[in-house]
């Protein structure tokens, strides 16, 4: 056996002792670091990644697991539970939010995909206690039944109206086609979107 691989008890204790001494010397310096830097180092050591974005007009700086979806981040970290996770496969549109004013399925993209971008959820449409015109239109025209898909429907409608402020019926049908309503309230959803466009 070579000398390099044959570690004696003495060599082992010397190496461990050096590590302990180094830690002892560095500990006061580590303790003197600002809390923010220590927290950041801890988060990184846990495998998390820094995330900066804007959600409903508020700048957010935090750390997330790399595999956290945007829907999970919004619901679990920010407690914005209006965003619903329904199919969790990017197929039904129940989790739709706006990402830089475009409708996205938040269960189907990572939170890190929203880095340095602006996210708007159903909560972000309201002005204090005042409902957004699209929200009000869904109430006025019965664009919901069980209500579970409604936040996603409203966010898809808002994205459509940003792109086409005065959409034709065909544009509404096309723009809302990615959002499934299991209660089949489609006629009223379409009317709600058209009514919102008139406001």
Task: Describe what is shown at a glance.
The protein has helices at residues 9-32, 35-45, 70-77, 122-125, 133-140, 150-163, 169-175, 186-198, and strands spanning 49-55, 58-64, 96-99, 102-105, 118-120. With 199 residues, the protein is of the alpha+beta class. The N and C termini lie far apart (84 Å).
Descriptive overview:
This protein has 199 residues and is α+β, with helices and mostly antiparallel strands. The chain has a single domain, classed as Ubiquitin-like (UB roll) (Roll). It contains 8 helices and 5 strands. The chain has helices at 9-32, 35-45, 70-77, 122-125, 133-140, 150-163, 169-175, 186-198, and strands at residues 49-55, 58-64, 96-99, 102-105, 118-120. The chain has a 5-stranded mixed β-sheet with strand order 2-1-5-3-4. Strand 1 and strand 2 (58-64) form a beta hairpin. Helix 6 packs across helix 8 (186-198). The longest helix has 24 residues, at 9-32. The N and C termini lie far apart (84 Å). 32% of the residues are buried.
């Amino acid at each position: 056996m070579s000398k390099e691989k044959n570690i004696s008890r003495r060599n082992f204790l010397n190496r461990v002792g050096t590590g302990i001494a180094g830690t002892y010397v560095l500990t006061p310096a580590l303790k003197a670091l600002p809390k923010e830097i220590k927290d950041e180092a801890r988060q990184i050591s846990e495998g998390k990644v820094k995330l900066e974005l804007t959600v409903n007009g508020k700048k957010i700086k935090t750390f997330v697991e790399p595999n956290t979806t945007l829907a999970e981040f919004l619901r679990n970290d920010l407690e914005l539970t209006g965003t619903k996770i329904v199919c969790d496969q990017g197929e039904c549109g129940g989790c739709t939010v706006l990402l830089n004013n475009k409708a996205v399925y938040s269960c189907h993209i990572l939170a890190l995909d929203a880095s340095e971008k602006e996210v708007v959820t159903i909560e972000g449409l309201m002005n204090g206690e005042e409902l957004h015109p699209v929200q009000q239109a869904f109430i006025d025209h019965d664009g919901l039944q069980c209500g579970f898909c409604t936040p996603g429907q409203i966010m898809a409608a808002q994205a459509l109206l940003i792109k086409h402020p005065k959409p034709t019926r065909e544009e509404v049908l096309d723009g809302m086609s990615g959002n499934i309503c299991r209660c089949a309230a489609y006629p009223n959803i379409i009317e709600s979107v058209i009514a919102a466009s008139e406001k």
